[in-house]
């Protein structure tokens, strides 16, 4: 099966090192069935121009340029040298960066899943590992997928449709039409299929938008109160925000699962059980209590405990949490500066929360009838037909 050909832009004023980079990566079996192509540049300016003109999947970058002694001397003294180089790249396009430098301390603080820092003179495998780690993020794959979605729509899906579009769509609407179709190609199911993820279960990350859209309050926003560190979720409908009717914002309390009373009862029961010896005369009672308490927490996690609660599965930016629809707060919209956004629920999970809240508070209580009497009549009618 043919793999991807990943194009790597390598910038270093040492031409011998550029050759070494090519020897280290090109033909490396660990990347099979994918292959690596290196575009070497000994000039930072020329490399940046190439990045603006062509698409590359990764950039390997030396931090300093000894070919310009004045600039090199200035950057040697400048603690922001890494940011200067990275800023030039960011102004052009998104592309993961691997700093391959003799001055790693100047850029170590920039390290992230898409920015790697490798020390020159180390083992060659370290550079291979860095490239492999970047590819494992699937971000280079996603960038290509987005381009392919646009190209496929413009040249394939619309083939034979342009005459209809010209007759029925205003010129100003064309970009909107394309944007919506490309967005569909990046929908949850499409991305899962592209990444090869099973449709049986979702990843909790699929439930959220992170970071949240800034400077905007929306239903499903999970926020943290700065003074108390308490978390809340916005329940005010979107139409109220859009139409300027939201003078106040309705919030429901979001507890970390470990703060919930049922969880605390379970932990307490487990501690008592662990502290008891096997010959403890109450060992069976302690085991039963721990099992029952654990079952209560399980029903809470499975959303079967009560309509009052809704469980949110945790991610790296949010712990496992429980929304309590009975613990509410209503604040003026101007108070939103007292909160910081944690994340936002994405559709359809955002709509589900609003529906569950509406259903919980829309319950209608009615007197119970005697079900035993009803069942007695059913049994009597059945026996009478024999």
Keywords:
386 residues; alpha/beta; Rossmann fold; SH3 type barrels; seven-stranded antiparallel sheet; five-stranded parallel sheet; 14 helices; extended
Which SSEs are present, and which pair or pack?
Elements: E1 5-11, H1 15-25, E2 35-41, H2 44-53, E3 58-61, H3 69-77, H4 81-90, E4 97-101, E5 115-119, H5 124-136, H6 139-157, H7 162-168, H8 171-185, H9 188-195, E6 208-209, E7 221-225, E8 231-234, H10 238-242, E9 248-256, H11 261-275, H12 283-301, E10 309-312, E11 321-332, E12 339-345, H13 349-361, H14 371-384
Parallel strand pairs: 1-2, 1-3, 3-4, 4-5
Antiparallel strand pairs: 6-12, 7-8, 7-12, 8-9, 9-11, 10-11
Helix pairs in contact: 6-8, 11-12
Biggest sheet, open or closed, and with what strands and sense? 7 strands, antiparallel
CATH domain topology of the largest domain: SH3 type barrels
Helix content: 40-55%
User: What is the helix/strand order?
Assistant: EHEHEHHEEHHHHHEEEHEHHEEEHH
Gap from first CA to last CA: 69 Å
Mean pLDDT, as a whole number? 84
Structural class: alpha/beta
Whole-angstrom Rg: 30 Å
Going across the major beta sheet, what is the strand order? 6-12-7-8-9-11-10
What assembly state would you assign to the polypeptide chains in this entry?
A: single chain
Which stretches are low in confidence, meaning pLDDT under 50 for 5 or more residues running? 67-72
Quote the beta fraction.
15-25%
């Amino acid at each position: 099966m043919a793999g991807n050909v990943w194009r790597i832009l390598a910038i270093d004023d040492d031409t011998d090192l550029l050759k070494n980079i090519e020897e280290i990566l090109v033909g490396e079996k660990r990347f099979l069935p994918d292959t690596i192509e290196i575009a070497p540049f000994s000039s930072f300016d020329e490399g940046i121009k190439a990045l603006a003109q062509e698409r590359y999947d990764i950039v390997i970058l030396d931090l300093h340029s000894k070919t310009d002694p004045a600039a090199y001397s200035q950057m040697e003294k400048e603690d922001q040298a890494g940011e200067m180089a990275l800023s030039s790249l960011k102004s052009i396009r998104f592309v993961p960066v691997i700093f391959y430098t003799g001055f790693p301390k100047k850029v170590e603080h920039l390290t992230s899943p898409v920015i790697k820092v490798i020390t020159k003179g180390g083992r060659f495998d370290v550079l291979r590992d860095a490239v492999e780690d970047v590819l494992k993020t699937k971000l280079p794959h996603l960038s290509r997928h987005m381009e392919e979605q646009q190209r496929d729509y413009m040249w394939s899906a619309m083939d034979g449709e342009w005459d209809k579009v010209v007759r029925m769509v205003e010129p100003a609407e064309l970009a909107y039409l394309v944007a919506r179709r490309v967005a569909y190609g990046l929908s949850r199911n499409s991305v899962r299929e592209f990444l090869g993820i099973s449709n049986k279960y979702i990843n909790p990350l699929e439930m959220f938008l992170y970071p949240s859209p800034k400077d905007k309050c929306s239903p499903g926003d999970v926020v943290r109160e700065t003074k108390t560190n308490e978390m809340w979720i916005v329940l005010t409908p979107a139409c109220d925000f859009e139409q300027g009717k939201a003078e106040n914002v309705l919030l429901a309390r979001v507890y970390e699962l470990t703060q919930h009373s049922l969880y605390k009862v379970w932990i307490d029961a487990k501690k008592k059980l662990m502290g008891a010896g096997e010959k403890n005369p109450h060992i069976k009672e302690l085991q039963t209590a721990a099992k029952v308490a654990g079952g209560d927490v399980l029903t809470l996690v499975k959303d079967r405990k009560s309509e009052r609660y809704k469980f949110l599965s945790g991610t790296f930016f949010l712990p496992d949490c429980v929304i309590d629809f009975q613990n509410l707060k209503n604040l003026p919209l101007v108070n939103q500066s007292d909160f910081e956004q944690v994340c936002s629920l994405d559709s359809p999970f955002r709509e589900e929360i609003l529906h569950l809240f509406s259903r919980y508070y829309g319950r209608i209580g009615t007197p119970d009838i005697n079900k035993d009497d009803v069942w007695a009549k059913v049994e009597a009618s059945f026996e009478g037909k024999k």
